[in-house]
Amino acid sequence: MADIFDAYALADAWDEMFERPGEVRAAYEPVLAALQPIEPAELRFRADQMARAFTDRGVTYAFAGEERPWPLDLVPRILDALEWDLIQRGVAQRVRALEAYLADAYGPCRAFEDGVVPWRLLLNSPHFHRSAHGVEPPGGVRIHVAGIDLVRDEAGAFRVLEDNVRVPSGVSYVIENRRAMTRVFPSLFAEQHVLPVDGYAQKLLAALRAAAPGGIGDPRVVVLTPGPNNAAYFEHALLARLMGVQLVEGHDLVCRGNRVWMRTTRGEMPVHVVYRRLDDDFLDPLHFRPDSVIGCPGVMGAAMAGNVTLANAVGNGIADDKLLYTYVPDLIRYYLGEEPVLPNVESFRPDEPGQLEAVLDQIDQLVVKPVDGAGGQGIVIGPKADRETLERTRAAVLADPRGWIAQRPVALSTSPTLAGERMAPRHIDLRPFAVNDGSEVWVLPGGLTRVALQEGNLIVNSSQGGGSKDTWVLAEGPAEQRHEEESGPLEKAPRQLGPDGTRTVVQEGAQQQ
Amino acid sequence: MNDVILSRIAEALTWTGRYVERADATGRILDAYLHRLLEDPWRDEDAACRSLYAILGVDAPDQHCDMRQVLDRLAFDADSTGSIEGALGAARLNARSAREAVSSEMWECLNSTWHALADQRTAARRTGGPYAYLELVRRRAALFFGLADSTMSRDDSWRFVVLGRSLERVDMTVRLLSVRVLDAAHAPDWPTLLSASGADEAYARVHGGFGDSPKVAEFLLLDRDFPRSALHALTTAEECLAALGRPRQDPARRPIGALRTHLEYLDSASLEAGLPTLLRDLQRACMASAEAVAEKFFPYQGPVEWAQEGA
Fold first, then answer.
1. Which stretches within A115-270 are classed as H helix?
2. CB contact residues (below 8 A), chain A span 194-233, against chain B
3. Residue B170 has pLDDT above 50, yes or no
4. Collapsed DSSP state (helix, strand, coil) of residue A63
5. How many alpha carbons lie under 13 Å from residue A39 in its C-beta half-sphere?
6. Do the Cβ atoms of A500 and B89 come within 8 Å?
7. Edge-to-edge strands, sheet with A367-370
8. Where would you tag: which of A74, A84, A128, A492 has the fewest CB atoms within 10 A of its CB?
9. CA of B41 to nearest chain A CA: how many angstroms apart?
10. Whole-number pLDDT of residue A199
11. Does B198 touch chain A (CB under 8 A)?
C-alpha cells in the first residue's frame, strides 16, 4: 500500500530517521509505525488543527508583514539517551568555558597574556564594554541563559555552529511545541518515554533568584521586554507568566541612588534581578545608545554598584563573537583542562596572515558569515551564490577581515518533513538551552529544532521562512523511577450524582392534538 | 410580582449549576491526567486510571484500564451524570424544565453545546486525543456562567444556580486534590494539578514560585482571592444560603459554615498534617449541605402516580 513515506528519497546528508532507504533507525520505529498508516488528508487536518491552536494562543511570528501561526512540523526530532548525554555534556562544557573566558576578559586577562587569544579580538570587538570591567557578578555567573546552536554533519557527528550568550531566544517555542504535539498528536507519544520540558521556567527562576545581589532574603525578579512590538514578545510574556514575575518595560522602572525600583499602584518596589530581553546597546541610554527609548536610564550604574543583577550580564557579546568561536576549543583546553566534547565546524579566520588569501581563493566553496550577524542575515553560501554575490563578498572580506569568518559548508542532517501531501527530507539544526545557576549548568532536555522548509535550503531561521520540530529526548528506561511510596488501591469516594432531568412519568395525550 | 420560585424550578436550577461545573471540572481533571501520562516517561497507566475512577466515585472494571476507556466512561458516556456528556445532557434537560427561569441565552448555550459535542467526540475518537473536546467543554462552561452573571437578576433563581456551582466546585476541587494526596505515585504532579484548576498563573504570582510542594494544596483550599479555591467557593455558597433563607439554625448552612471558619483560621502546619481528614470532611460537609438544601427547598416529590382500585 502506498503511504506518505513511499517516495522519500534520502538527500545527500545524514538522515535523522532513516539509515538507508526503507531502513529506519531504532529510536524512530514507533513514530514511523504510528505515522505510516495515516492518510495525507488526515495529516493535513492535524496540521491545520495545530496552526489554529497556535493562532488562538497567539504563538505567531511576523513574516512578510503578516501574522503567521508558528510553523511546527508533525514529525518529531528524536534524540536517544546516548546522543543526549553527549550533547548535554558538550553544551555544559562550552558554557563553563565561556563563563571562564568572560570572567577572565573582564578581569585579569590571563588568556591574552598567555597568548591563547590575541588581544585585538577583545579590544576591537564592538561588544566589549569597559563598563562591565570589574563588575563581579553574584555566584560568578554572567551567562544565566545560553543557546548553543548545533548541527549534525554528514557523518552523523554533532558540531557546534555558534554560541548565543547574549539574549538567546526560542525557548518558548520548545514549551509550546510540546504542548501542541501532546494535544494534537497524542498517539505519537504512546510507545515512547519522552523527557518533559516544562521544568524550564522553574530552573530559570531558581537561577535568577540565585543571581540576586548578596544579602537579599527574598529577591524580586522582573523580565524586561522592549514591548509588544518586539518579535519575541510572546516569549517574554510566557516566561514572566510561568515564573509568576512582573513583565516590565523600560519606563516601568526607575533608578535612584544606584538602585532600581518599579512603579506600582502600591508605590515603588525594589527590584533585584532584571532578566533583560534587550540588547546591551539599548539597555541604558546613559551608558550606551543615548537614543534608546526602550531602556532604563541608570540601570547599568545600579548593576556596577552591585545593587541589581542583570541577566545575562552586559558585555557578553565578546564571547559569542563568531571570530571568538574559532578559539573556543582552545579555551576549553586552557580553562578547564578538558578536551572539547563537541567539535567546531572547520573554520578560517580571515584576519590572520595567510588565511585571508586562502579564504579569498576558495570563496566559492566556503560559507562566509559576518561575525555579529543574527538570524541568518548576511550569510553567503559559496557553492550556491552567483558570481556577483561572490565578488561583493570578496570585496567586503578584503576590506574588513576582522568582520568575517569562513567555514566549510556542512550538509546539515535532514529529517522527514511534511511537504504538501508527502514526506520529504529537509535540513535541520538544534538549539539546546542551558541555564547556569552558579553551581550547575542545566540543559533543558531537547531544545529547539529548526527546519528549513524549502528543499535544499541550509538556513533554518524563522525570519528566513524556517519551521520547527518538537524535539524529543528519550528516557533511559525505568531506572530512574519516581521515588514515591506506593499506596494500595484507593477506596471509592462517595458521590451525589443527581437527577438526570428526565421525567419519571411519561404521559402521552395530555395535550389536545 | 414574581419574587417566589417553584421548588421544582429551584431544584432544576441548582442541578444545572452543578452539572455545568461538574463537566468543566471533570474535563480539567481528565486533561491533567492525559497531559501527565503523555509527558511522564515513567507512567503506570492502569494504576493511574484506577485511582482516577476511585476518586470520582466510579467502579473500576476488572480488566486492564487505559485512558481510552476512562474517556468513554468519564467523558463520552451520555447515560451517567458523572461523565461530561451525561452531566451536560442533564444540565440541558434540567434547564429546559426550568425554561422560564433561565435566560434564553443560557438555554441556547447549553443546547448548542449539547449538539456540538457529537462532532467533537467523533473527532476525538478518530485522532485519539480529546483536546478539542475538552476545550469546547471548558469554554462553554465559562460562557454559561458568564451568561448567568450578565443576564440573570440577582434574585433567588440566580442564587440557586450559584449555590449549585459552588457546592460542586468544592466537591471537585477536593477530588482533584485527593488524587495527589491519597495516591501520589500515580497522580499528576502538583504543577499539573494547578494548571488543571486554571490556577497555575495565579499561584505563581502569589507564591513567586512553583507548585512543587503542599503549598499547592494550601492554595487550592485556603486562598481567599482565587475563585476556584475551596474557601472561596464555600464562602460563596454560604452567602447564597444566607440570602435564601433563615440566617440562623440553618442545617444547610451549618456544615459548610463550620468548615469555612475552620479553613479561615487554619495554619499551614496543621493543614499539612490533617490533609486527608480535611478533604474527607469537606466532601461530607458539601453532601450534608446539599441534602439539607434539598430537604428544605425542594419538598416536591415528583408527580404522584395514581392506581385504579381493583385494576
1. 119-123, 171-184, 200-210, 233-243
2. 194-196, 198, 201-202, 205, 218
3. yes
4. strand
5. 5
6. yes
7. A347-348, A404-407, A367-370, A380-381
8. A492
9. 4
10. 86
11. no
The pLDDT confidence band at residue A1, using thresholds 50, 70 and 90, is very low
* Residues B93, B138, A43: CA angle, nearest 5 degrees: 115
- The answer, yes or no, to whether residue A270 has pLDDT greater than 50, is yes
Q: CB-based contact (8 Å) between B204 and chain A? A: yes
**Is residue B1 over pLDDT 70?**
no
CB within 8 A of A320, min separation 6: which ones? A98, A162, A163, A164, A165, A166
Read off the DSSP letter of residue A163. E
ipTM greater than cut 0.85: no
C-alpha–C-alpha distance, residues A50 and A77, integer Å: 17
| Helix/strand/coil (H/E/C) assignment for every residue in A230-294 | CCCHHHHHHHHHHHCCEEECHHHEEEECCEEEEEECCEEEEECEEEECCCHHHHCCCCCCCCCCC
CA distance B116 to chain A (A): 17
Tell me, what's the pLDDT at A159? Answer: 96
Instruction: Give me the pLDDT at residue A254, please.
Output: 93
Contact status, residue A470 vs residue A72, Cβ threshold 8 Å: yes
pLDDT the model gives residue A263? 93
Domain segments of chain A as ranges: 18-193+319-345+410-478, 214-307
Q: Do B185 and A244 touch (CB under 8 A)?
A: no
| pLDDT for res A478 | 54
C-alpha cell at B128: 485519539
**What whole-number distance in Å separates Cα of residue A435 and Cα of residue B302?**
65
What are the pLDDT digits (tens) for A239-260? 998 888 999 999 999 999 999 9
Percent of chain B past pLDDT 70, that is, above it, reads: 93
The more confidently predicted of residues B19 and B56 is B19
Q: Side chain identity at A134, as an amino acid letter?
A: G
In whole numbers, what is the pLDDT of chain A averaged over residues?
Answer: 87
**Reduced to 3 states, what is the DSSP secondary structure of residue B8?**
helix
pLDDT in tens, A52-87: 888 888 888 777 677 788 889 999 999 999 999 999
Which chain B residue has the Cα nearest residue A496? Answer: B287
Contact B128 A186 (CB under 8 A): yes
User: Is the minimum CB–CB distance between B305 and chain A shorter than 8 Å?
Assistant: yes
Q: Please state which architecture CATH assigns to domain A214-307.
A: 3-Layer(aba) Sandwich (3.40)
How do A273-276 and A221-224 pair as beta strands? parallel
CA-nearest of A432, A410, A427 to A467 is A427
Sign of the C-alpha dihedral, residues B151, B156, B159, B164? negative
pTM: 0.86
* pLDDT grade for B41, boundaries at 50, 70 and 90: low
Q: A272 pLDDT exceeds 80?
A: yes
Q: Is B27 strand, coil or helix? A: helix
SS3 string of B245-297?
CCCCCCCCHHHHHHHHHHHHCCCHHHHHHCHHHHHHHHHHHHHHHHHHHHHHH
